[in-house]
Amino acid sequence: MSPKRPQGVVMLLMLMVFDVSGAFVGITIGNDMSNLPSATDIVAILKEKKIQHVRLIDSDHQMLTALANTGIEVMVGVPNDQLLRVGQSRSTAADWINKNVAAYAPATNITYIAVGDEVLTNIPNAALVLVPALQFLQSALLAANLNNQVKISSPQSMDMISKAFPPSTATFNSTWNTIMSQYLQFLKDTGSSFMLNAQPYYGYVGGQGVFPLEYALFRSLSPNSQISDPNTNLFYTNMFDAIIDATYNSIQAMNFTGIPVLVTASGWPWRGGPNEKSATVDNALAYNTNLVRHVLNNSGTPSQPMNQSSTYIFELFNDDRRSGPVSEKSWGIMFSNATTVYSLSFEDVATTIPESPALRGMFCVANSSAPHSALKHSLDWACGPGSANCSAIQPGQPCYESDNIVAVASYAFNDYYHRTQASGGTCSFNGTAMITSTDPSHGSCIFAGSTGANGSDGGTASGPVSPDSFASKSQSCWLTHLVAAVLLILVM
Fold this sequence. Notes:
This protein has helices at 7-19, 39-48, 61-66, 80-88, 90-102, 119-122, 130-143, 177-190, 200-207, 213-216, 239-253, 281-296, 372-383, 405-420, 467-491; strands at residues 25-29, 53-56, 73-78, 110-115, 151-153, 156-157, 194-197, 227-228, 235-236, 261-266, 311-313, 363-366, 433-436. By secondary structure, it is an alpha/beta fold. Residues 362-447 form the X8 domain.
């Protein structure tokens, strides 16, 4: 007779298996728009864009039916106007689960329920029923035997954090301490994530010039604009990471750990009113392109390098019936008639790809005589819409030179050129770049096309691997082998 296998060991193995998986990028679909495409057409759009994770603001039954047997992971929502009823009655919560989850699972791959949206800051009169609603819904999931497949949480606003910078001293608004403690305990007990609507656009606009636009858009910062946490000396190259770390530290300040952060909404408006100058198509494209790349490279944040937060981009369609300024109606990457506002890839646009042998020994570098302002503009384009892999020119990485924009731009230009030349990409950048056969590689900063210090063929356009990336891959490999070994022991 084989020895009894401890349940704790099995659960640990399950958690380890989940830990080695990478973060994902999904998208939100709202319900405040005119002329919404049919559910079938929306699912066709999701498939075309290779979107595998979707957040529904509500629990639209036509969408849940259309999503059946697609494999797309679905987050359904309990709207704010239903929260009071669900939080005041176990039977109402059970009825909600039966009608909106159990009736569609497992054909429709529902994995999360978002209970309300920014309840504590938007409808504080319902605050006292938030945790009971979570608990009642969890009990209903248990009764339906869906508690292992479906997790429950509630999206919170950035406004829940009293002072988000520096991230190391961030705390939640003490007004909500009692409810927040109960909420975090629920997440801890059920293995759920802390849902956060992380919108650097609001942080940038609300900062009124305190932070540069480049910081909000994931763009390279000038040497005199570097931002660091004075308590930890950690550098923050973008506002998104600072928001995530502020959230982790706020959770830790409540004496909770081990609760992952899941970003349920992040995006940028493409249009604004006369006083909303930063709401443009270019900025929206830059933000969302860089966000996709940042999440999918699994680099984590400065204080959480091993914990990359999966993210739902806000949003697929413009909610043109939403009240408020023009920007509030203009977050979608598509119009409600299914035409595109701007083209956004949901795949890792910065992955390593083979280069043409004809480009070996050829390099696209910055023209040192070009104005620095022009180089900066071209650099931002290369690292944003151009989809160059610019991780190696971030602070602390091998090709970072804070006072040498020519060197930094050269790396980005060259990476772009080697990635795209076969499909028509050029080394122009509006006259700020040129082709050379002189290898600009130096030290551990290896340019695409270089034969490398040891004479081996460069062969890819990825550039050097950062220490964090190496550590992440090494740990994933180590954990995978450990899981396999222990599983083998358990089945013997």
